[in-house]
């Protein structure tokens, strides 16, 4: 059986009055028994981004920059998609191979993203799962960019989606 280890790193010396903490989470396998690496091109990387009203201003600019950077760095043999969400999910770019053309199209789509609406994270995750299911045999990876302010009305559904 493989053991997974999660580590979170954050700046411990925040300025007084700071209201934002940025963290990096690393998940690794401590015992690789049963885990095999794949050299095939069956990899799908999903970018899931919060575009709710709370992400306005500098936050939306920061996540658009991050999404653009991720897309531009994808290897051409990988596949990717972009889902954004507020009160509902939106497929900004469907599952596609990370060719130069597809990356250029995705980068253009990212530029048009705006922030508004509520925050129903469960709907974004459901949409991302639907995109992942288009390539059921692929190794799946996802990056979720959010400020973490989910609407209270979504708590039960989010718990269900995460199980």
Which structural traits does this protein have?
4 helices, four-stranded mixed sheet, 163 residues, two-stranded antiparallel sheet, alpha/beta, Rossmann fold, 29% helix
Provide a descriptive summary of the structure in words.
The chain starts with a strand and ends with a helix. Helix content is 29%, strand content 28%. The protein contains four helices and six strands; from the N terminus they run βββαββααβα. It has one domain: Rossmann fold. The model is unreliable at 33-40 (pLDDT under 50). The strands form two sheets. Strands 5-4-3-6 form a four-stranded mixed β-sheet, with helices on both faces. It is an alpha/beta fold.
Category from helices, strands and their pairing: alpha/beta
Q: Summarize the amount of helix as a percent range.
A: 25-40%
Number of helices: 4
- Described by the principal axes of the CA atoms, the overall outline is globular
Poorly predicted tracts of residues: 33-40
- The percent range for strand residues is 25-35%
Mean pLDDT: 84
Architecture, CATH level 2?
A: 3-Layer(aba) Sandwich
Q: How is the biggest beta sheet arranged?
A: 4 strands, mixed
Helix-strand pattern = EEEHEEHHEH
- Count of domain modules: 1
CATH H level: which superfamily?
von Willebrand factor, type A domain
Widest sheet: strand order?
5-4-3-6
CATH topology descriptor: Rossmann fold
Rg over alpha carbons: 17 Å
- End-to-end gap: 20 Å
How many β-strands, per DSSP? 6
Task: Please write the CATH class name.
Answer: Alpha Beta
């Amino acid at each position: 059986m493989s053991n997974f280890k999660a580590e979170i790193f954050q700046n411990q010396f925040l300025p007084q009055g700071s209201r934002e903490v940025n963290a990096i989470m690393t998940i690794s396998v401590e015992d690789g028994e049963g885990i095999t690496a794949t050299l095939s091109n069956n990899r799908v990387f999903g970018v899931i981004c919060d575009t709710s009203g709370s992400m306005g201003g500098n936050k939306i600019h920061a996540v658009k920059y991050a999404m653009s950077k991720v897309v531009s760095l994808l290897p051409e043999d990988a596949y990717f998609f972009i889902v954004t969400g507020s009160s509902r999910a939106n497929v900004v770019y469907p599952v596609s191979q990370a060719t130069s053309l597809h990356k250029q199209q995705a980068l253009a789509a990212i530029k048009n993203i705006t922030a508004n609406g509520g925050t129903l994270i469960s709907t974004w995750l459901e949409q991302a799962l639907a995109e992942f299911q288009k390539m059921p045999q692929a190794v799946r990876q996802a990056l979720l960019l959010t400020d973490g302010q989910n609407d209270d009305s979504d708590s039960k559904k989010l718990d269900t989606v995460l199980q």
